[in-house]
């Protein structure tokens, strides 16, 4: 079984490393070749374009930055769909739009190619440790074929039905996380301004009804002044914009998600801090600037 | 050691029951006597006012609804401070304002009475099981004297320093919870409108970075259509108003908390649903009305 993997950022690198460790044959392509060098040193092969990576491979994965990058890698002149053939299965792991996922799937269906959207949660550590949570949408036959390979890098793989539904599930995840991050930033700021011992307050909140994963993960980093990305602020902003765009299509008002989008836009677009981790949202308050 | 307990709502009843089980002598007072009847049947004594309950007791607890009720029970004509004497320790477990906690403590200090603010988290189940998380502010000597009795109904007791700091810590807790509830309501609504399987989505989100106590506790109730109160929506609204008022005094802008206050006000004041549990916030979306 031959795997092509397009996009060797932090997430892609972690996943490909696990494929290689499991003895899979992997070809990689990335816009910046230097970022793929470690994988090439570990035995991955190089392709000069998404199209070249696609040729003669069974599973073609993409995990790139933004929906426009997904679009280009699938529909561009040297893109996957310029050469893909019946029998191949295309899997987009990027957190991208449900609408684009449906478009790729519809195109694939016309030419007999299996297409799945399979965004993940679990971050860089989940990718490195092969313990991602993978949310899949697309045709069921392709899902069954892809399941062993997805399971090999995941602790949990869930199938959500039609194309785009993997992305919808991921959006639900990001909507939850965004509000949690705001609550975390606001209580830490309130507690600091009130003169409370922050570690003591954190220990207390963690023991009860306020407990959550984001707090357990990011509050200690904030207290140490560590704003490095586990997950980029600019990527959460992208995700929230996708969620709000989809919500618009569903005629849904999501005021907390909208507020989170505004605050992450302030951090990313106005303050230029989008390359920090999502916990840097707290820098919007002068107590932490 | 003789305990007076003023306020026999769900929380107070749970706590007093544990005091009685531990063999303590407890006198109770409540605005509506009928709500104290079960405790009287279990061996608690009755007092006709807060003042009467205070006389000849070592620890005088209050756990009532709103700051105005706290005010009345302490400063009213038949209130605690009309009769309290040196050596007694007064402990307010109501989630109330840090400002009022400081006022009671300052009054107590003048006449040699120990005063603690000791709001709790853990809800009705925590109260029933003696597993509250108790956040204490006030003078250290009184804290040390009260610790054994507080610990007897708590899984965790934390001391936060000066009077009002227990309330500040509780506010931090409520700020965190409020945003979590909004995120929960928004993802469930988004997922429902997108046509996802909600149980499957919940299972997926619980396994990763979106996990939190509110979701684990309330999402299953929402999916069953159970909007009964673990914690009253109207009480969370009260808490958020206290938090925002204190934040104003600290010149802090807390937009997510403000949004939560607006939405819980809509639920409680506009729709008259404040006697439902906090999870009823999701009823603001027509998908759940």
Automatic annotation (TrEMBL), chains A, B:
Keyword Ligase in record: no
UniProt cross-references to Gene3D superfamilies, sorted A to Z: N-(1-d-carboxylethyl)-l-norvaline Dehydrogenase, domain 2 (1.10.1040.10), NAD(P)-binding Rossmann-like Domain (3.40.50.720)
The 6-phosphogluconate dehydrogenase NADP-binding domain, residue ranges: 2-161
Name under which the protein is recorded: NAD(P)-dependent oxidoreductase
InterPro entries cross-referenced by the UniProt entry: 6-PGluconate_DH-like_C_sf, 6PGD_dom2, 6PGDH_NADP-bd, HIBADH-like_NADP-bd, HIBADH-related, NAD(P)-bd_dom_sf
Organism, as annotated: Oenococcus sicerae
Pfam assignment, any one: NAD_binding_11
Domain 3-hydroxyisobutyrate dehydrogenase-like NAD-binding residues, every copy: 164-285
Family: Belongs to the HIBADH-related family.
Keywords: NAD, Oxidoreductase
């Amino acid at each position: 079984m031959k795997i092509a993997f397009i996009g060797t950022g932090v997430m892609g690198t972690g996943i490909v490393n696990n494929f290689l460790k499991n003895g899979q044959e992997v070809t990689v392509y990335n816009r910046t070749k230097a970022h793929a060098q470690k994988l090439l040193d570990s035995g991955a092969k190089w392709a000069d374009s998404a199209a070249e990576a696609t040729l003669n491979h069974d599973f073609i994965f993409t995990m790139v930055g933004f929906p426009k990058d997904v679009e280009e890698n699938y529909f561009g002149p040297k893109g996957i769909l310029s050469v893909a053939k019946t029998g191949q299965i295309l899997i987009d792991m990027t957190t991208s739009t449900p609408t684009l996922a449906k478009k790729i799937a519809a195109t694939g269906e016309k030419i007999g190619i299996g297409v799945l959207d399979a965004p993940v949660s679990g971050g860089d550590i989940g990718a490195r440790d092969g313990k991602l949570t993978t949310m899949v949408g697309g045709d069921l036959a392709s899902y069954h074929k892809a399941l062993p390979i997805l399971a090999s890098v995941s602790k949990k793989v869930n199938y959500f039905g039609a194309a785009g539904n993997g992305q919808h599930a991921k959006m639900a995840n990001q909507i939850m996380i965004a509000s949690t991050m705001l609550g975390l930033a606001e209580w830490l700021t309130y507690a600091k301004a009130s003169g409370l011992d922050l570690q003591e307050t954190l220990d207390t909140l963690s023991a009860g009804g306020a407990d959550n994963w984001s707090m357990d993960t990011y509050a200690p980093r904030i207290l140490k002044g560590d704003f490095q990305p586990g997950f980029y602020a600019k990527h959460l902003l992208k995700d929230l914009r996708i969620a709000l765009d989809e919500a618009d299509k569903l005629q849904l008002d999501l005021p907390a998600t909208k507020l989170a989008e505004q605050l992450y836009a302030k951090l990313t677009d106005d303050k230029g801090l989008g390359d920090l981790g999502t916990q840097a949202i707290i820098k919007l308050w002068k107590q932490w600037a």
